Amino acid sequence: MGFKCGIVGLPNVGKSTLFNALTQTAAAEAANYPFCTIEPNVGEVGVPDERLEKLAAIAKSQAVIPTRLTFVDIAGLVRGASQGEGLGNQFLSHIREVDAIAYVLRCFEDGDITHVEGRIDPVADADTVQTELMLADLDSLERRRTPLEKKAKTGEKEAKASLDVIDKVLPLLRDGKPARQADISHDERKIFDLLQLLTAKPVLYVCNVDEASAGAGNAYSQMVANRAKVEGAQHVTISAKIESELSGLEPEEQEAYLQELGLEEPGLNRLIRAGYRLLDLVTYFTVGPKEARAWTIEDGTKAPRAAGVIHTDFEKGFIRAETIAYDDYVSLGGELGAKEAGKMRLEGKDYLVKDGDVMHFRFAN
After folding, report:
1. Residue 252 class from Cβ within 10 Å (0-12 exposed, 13-18 middle, 19+ buried)?
2. Which strands form 203-209's sheet, in the order they lie side by side?
3. Residue 153 to residues 158, 162, 171, 203, 255: CA-CA distances in angstroms?
4. How far apart are CA 264 and CA 256, in angstroms?
5. Which of 101, 211, 300, 323 is the most buried (most CB within 10 A)?
6. What is the rounded radius of gyration, in angstroms, for the C-alpha atoms of the chain?
7. pTM
8. CA atoms of 182 and 168, how far apart (whole Å)
């Protein structure tokens, strides 16, 4: 089960610098988790999770394998991309393939780096990106509506259902609002998803600040934070320059450098975790002497489907899941202690897997 987070932004905002830092960091990870470059602009990174290390230490696992997230460095956007300006068509086709979008916004001043719009205004930059996506969605839906309307008049139920969903979204787009704000019912969700609307995807704002502002942010990043709060979106503050420098250092040197800057951890860790949360993902673990491993599922996933992430046979032949909450596993010293304390539960097919569950699946061959 792969999840992709696209990185977008205007030229000269630090988008590619951040992506390069991500890929360099991933390449330097432990040998038991090889970095995978699928294309020049696609890379997988391990999701930092202290819980996994603790579980591995208790179980004395030989290998530690984190769950992963794919980041896609999408071709730079310019005003007019929805009409094919610059690399507009490439930009729009690539963004349709991701599950969520991280807007990298310039929140720093530097006279040596020219802004494509001739000013520093991260909120305006976000508006430019979102406007191009909304215009593309608007064009897509307006072209689809007329033939659907003709079919709906003949009594075709599927066409009528699709038309109803489109008519919920079009007024929003015409009013300058993203499709994700549409009031879509549970029954309409499948149709809505099939429309593949760019502005239906969840958004994370990434504030790229100067080195001095990496810890507390600055006035520009506060503007973005205010916008994110109004929208109910997530945001993270990060210095692409610092992350680029960190990615080339050994772990010990990284720690010393972070201490010198007064930072607790690399900003990339927060970016990766924010992207993970943005996709509404949770983690469960499998733990043993051979390996401790984290697995990615969507929040609300039932046990059989969660088992299928490991292998399809686990889902097909699912019998039950032996489950221990993370806190119980740690506080009771592992699987044996949890069993003795009565903290291991046998969960069936309707169990919704919780974040942090330590699981062992029983299945029929």
Report:
1. exposed
2. 37-39, 42-46, 68-73, 4-8, 100-107, 203-209, 234-238
3. 11, 13, 21, 37, 66
4. 11
5. 101
6. 23
7. 0.81
8. 6
Dist CA 310 CA 293 (whole Å): 10
Beta strands 234-238 and 68-73, pairing class:
unpaired
Give the alpha-carbon dihedral of 154, 157, 160, 166, to 10 degrees.
-140
**Per-residue tens of pLDDT for the chain, all 365 residues:** 468 888 888 878 888 888 888 877 655 443 333 334 445 578 888 888 999 999 999 999 999 999 888 888 876 665 554 455 444 456 677 788 888 899 999 999 887 666 666 678 999 999 988 988 898 899 899 999 999 999 998 989 999 999 999 999 999 999 999 999 999 999 999 999 999 999 999 999 999 999 999 989 999 999 999 999 998 888 999 999 999 899 888 888 999 999 999 898 898 888 888 888 888 899 999 999 999 999 999 999 999 999 999 999 999 999 999 999 999 999 999 999 999 999 999 999 999 999 999 999 999 97
Cβ neighbours for 206, distance < 8 A, ≥ 6 positions apart: 7, 18, 102, 103, 104, 105, 235, 236, 238, 271
Tokens read off for 272: 């990766």
Other C-beta atoms closer than 10 Å to the C-beta of 148 total 21
What's the CA gap between 285 and 78, in Å, rounded?
Answer: 42
